[in-house]
Amino acid sequence: MIRLVRTDSSNNDFVELVKLLDKELQIRDGSEHSFYSQYNKIDKIKNVVVAYEDDVAVGCGAIKEYESNTMEVKRMFVKDEYRSKGIATKILIELELWAGALGYNKCILETGLKQPEAIHLYKKNNYKVIPNYGQYAGVVNSVCMEKVFI
After folding, report:
1. CA distance 23 to 26
2. How many CB atoms lie within 10 A of CB 78?
3. CA distance 48 to 42
């Protein structure tokens, strides 16, 4: 059974999961990794969800304010051996619920063409592709998406 815990970026399990995420992204992104990593610092993120199975941290995600009505989804990750079990969707839904409870009505995110599983996850959860925003504008391998809450 998956247990979701709301926490912040000081959570040790979150820090360790992000290290695994960064290792994977360094391989997938190759020479572009340093560009992306500068926008993925985890210090001072107030809204983090860590997923546990039998007290083992298996996945994570975070949101941080982008604009007054918009949260940005960051640092979504599930360990290899726990993938394809719906854990990422559970984390994402929990982040969306948290954003809504905090008064935000939209989530945006950036992922990469080299992460087709992530693109599939977000589309499956009703995220729509939007023009690349902010620092990702004009970045060919970036895919930006949004979901507006009613």
Report:
1. 5
2. 25
3. 10
Whole-angstrom distance, CA of residue 78 vs CA of residue 88: 6
The boundaries of the domain holding residue 138 are: 2-148
Judge whether 76 and 65 are in contact, CB under 8 Å. Answer: no
Q: What is the CATH number for 87?
A: 3.40.630.30
Name the pLDDT band for 22 (thresholds 50, 70, 90). Answer: confident
Beta-bridge partner residues of 51: 4, 59
Tokens of 14: 């979150």
Total domains in the fold of the chain = 1
| Of 42, 25, 22, residue with least CA distance to 141 | 25
Rounded CA-CA distance 108/137 in Å is 14
Distance CA(50)–CA(110), nearest Å, equals 20
Q: For 95-149, write each residue's pLDDT tens digit.
A: 999 999 999 999 999 999 989 999 999 999 999 999 999 999 998 999 999 999 8
Tokens of 13: 């399990």
| Alpha helix stretches (DSSP H) within the chain | 12-29, 33-37, 87-101, 116-124
